[in-house]
Design a protein that fits this description.
mainly alpha
Length: 73
Amino acid sequence: MPEEEEPEVDLAQAPVLRSLLWTGRERMRIPAGEAFRHYENNWRFIRNAPMSAREKQLLERLKRDYGRGLINA
């Protein structure tokens, strides 16, 4: 049985997340689990950052899928 591929996040749709990735700017897509870890590990810097509705929906989905509904910050 083939292993299921992890979904990816399009950084063009997540400018706050992209701002955290000051290295590796050439990447435009990252695995969803990695995206969640970046949000979680940097939450103190971005918790009050203005986010688009699309990015807020992305964050809610990542919290549900990878954080059991929480950001552990």
